[in-house]
Specification:
heterodimer; A: 237 residues; alpha+beta; Glutamine Phosphoribosylpyrophosphate, subunit 1, domain 1; five-stranded antiparallel β-sheet; globular; B: 265 residues; eight-stranded antiparallel β-sheet; 7 helices
């Protein structure tokens, strides 16, 4: 009979956390900020088809960083859950808090029980009727659920980006003011990001029933400036 | 009613109906016995192609036998930004089908990241009507019209259906429901290629007016309560419902015309 080697639980959890953190840190970052008309989501993403930011429901958006196939599976789970709930009950009964809890459960379960933790960090954002009702739920690879106020940063180098972002961000900014600040925070002092490097979407209160809207490269370029270099090769991270 | 995290070899894909069945919410269950005349009926709906797209219209009455069960039912609704669906038949089943159809289009768009083609949407609706055949055989018949603006071909297109899910694309116009016969005749007489938007709206209103004249299950404009038929255009700019003020003017003109002819028939 084979006897497994003894590994202290602390060591096992630490190894898993390190593994997940390394995977996430390899990917490019993403920021979400409140602005006057809702929530702005900006990701550094050279792919125009493999999305990091998506619509979940009327007022809810999803954003993920890390391993694409893993957070995309979580995104699909979210769309399905929201649509089934809205069908069985009412559109008003679909809310971000419940979904964020489900995600926290899934990530937590996978972290402790599966061979490999999910190498993802996700955000569930809900735009409220008034700005005070906006919600940003940030969920970490181990299922830790954080209810964030105003801004949220996911992915590699998050602390530095968050530092830059909070020094400039204001909830009263219009979109044209909020977007350049978010992009500058993502880029840092040594780089500039053009529209082609970015994936941008908003959850806008004034957008009718479906608040989610993508801003295409042309619109983004007109706000932050940027060249129309041919798209670079798409990558999954 | 809990949605699981599906394994990749067991994933229901973008099909919302399939997802509902997987979580135990089968939307199409046939009744155990005959169910005709147990539930309210929705009646006349129509669609007309014009130069920039299509006009859809439907009266507001629901009947149960010879009783008016609802005066302001909306049988013509947007399916998404560039298409609409109109329903005649058993009201409850029809409304659930519309809701499911709208959700299916949105669900697909969200999961796949792009909308279904117009032809694909018509096909989806056809499959839903077919799935309802068991209930239709017991008397719960639903017959929709589907119309929309095809962005790939830059034109309005419209389809009608039979209870088996048969799907027929029409080139000019279509009307269905209990007042569908007289409405079709009016549309046929008044139709010509390349109608302008206001002409098509006027023609649709006239068809509903004549249907309401001869069919007791079709409601005419109700100036007393301010209830007018639902009339909407779908063009490259999307779905736009015509306001009651505009419709009031159109129907007043139709009534004046009839009065001028000195005829009450």
């Amino acid at each position: 009979m084979n006897m497994p080697f003894y590994v202290a639980p602390e060591q096992m959890m630490k190894d898993r956390a390190d593994y997940a953190r390394k995977g996430i840190a390899r990917g490019r970052a993403l920021v979400a900020v409140q602005y006057v008309d809702g929530i702005l989501l900006v990701a550094e993403n050279t792919s125009n088809t493999l999305r990091k930011i998506s619509e979940i429901y009327d007022r809810i958006a999803f954003a993920g960083v890390g391993k694409y196939n893993e957070f995309d599976q979580l995104r699909r789970f979210g769309v399905r859950n929201a649509d089934v709930k809205g069908y069985a009950y009412s559109r008003d009964d679909v809310e971000a808090r419940g979904l964020a809890n489900d995600y926290a459960q899934i990530l937590g379960q996978t972290f402790t029980h599966e061979l490999k933790p999910l190498e993802v960090e996700i955000l569930v954002a809900e735009v409220g009727v008034a700005q005070a009702d906006d919600q940003l739920f940030h969920i970490l690879y181990d299922g830790t659920l954080v209810d964030e106020k105003g801004t949220s940063v996911l992915g590699g180098d998050a602390d530095a980006i968050a530092g830059r972002l909070t020094s400039t961000w204001s909830a009263d900014d219009a979109l044209a003011a909020a977007l350049p600040k978010a992009v500058a925070a993502l880029a840092g002092p040594e780089r500039t990001l053009s529209a082609d490097d970015l994936e941008v979407a908003v959850l806008s209160r004034s957008n009718g029933r479906r608040c989610f809207q993508r801003l295409d490269h042309g619109v983004v370029a007109s706000i932050v400036g940027g060249t129309n270099v041919p798209p670079k090769s798409a990558q999954g991270r | 009613m809990k949605v699981p995290l599906f394994a990749s070899d067991d994933d229901p894909g973008s099909d919302f109906s399939a997802l509902l069945r997987r979580v135990g919410l089968d939307p199409f269950q046939a009744p155990a016995g005959p169910a005709a005349n147990l539930a309210p009926h929705a009646t006349t709906v129509l669609a007309v192609r014009f130069a920039d797209g299509v006009v859809m219209a439907g009266d507001r009455r629901a009947t149960m036998g010879n009783r008016i069960s609802n005066r302001e039912m909306e049988k013509v609704v947007p399916a998404d930004r560039h298409s609409g669906v109109a329903i005649s038949g058993t009201a409850g089943v029809a409304m659930d089908m519309i809701k499911l159809f709208q959700l299916q289009l949105e669900h697909y768009e969200k999961l796949d990241g792009r909308p279904i083609s117009l032809e694909g949407k018509a096909n989806q609706l056809s499959q839903m009507v077919r799935a309802n055949l068991g209930a239709a055989m017991q008397g719960l018949v639903v017959v929709p019209i589907f119309a929309g603006y095809d962005s790939l071909r830059s034109t309005g297109r419209l389809w009608d259906f039979d209870i088996t899910g048969g799907r027929y694309e029409e080139r000019e116009f279509v009307a269905t429901g209990s007042g569908g016969g007289p409405a079709s005749t009016v549309l046929k007489v008044g139709y010509r290629l390349g109608l302008a938007s206001d002409e098509a709206i006027e023609l649709a209103c006239r068809a509903l007016w004549e249907a309401a004249e001869v069919d007791s299950a079709t409601g005419g404009p109700d100036a007393l309560r301010g209830i007018y038929p639902v009339v909407a255009t779908i063009t490259a700019d999307g779905w736009q419902r015509i306001t009651d003020d505009v419709l009031a003017t159109v129907f007043t003109a139709i009534a004046d015309g009839q009065r001028a002819r000195g005829s009450a028939s």
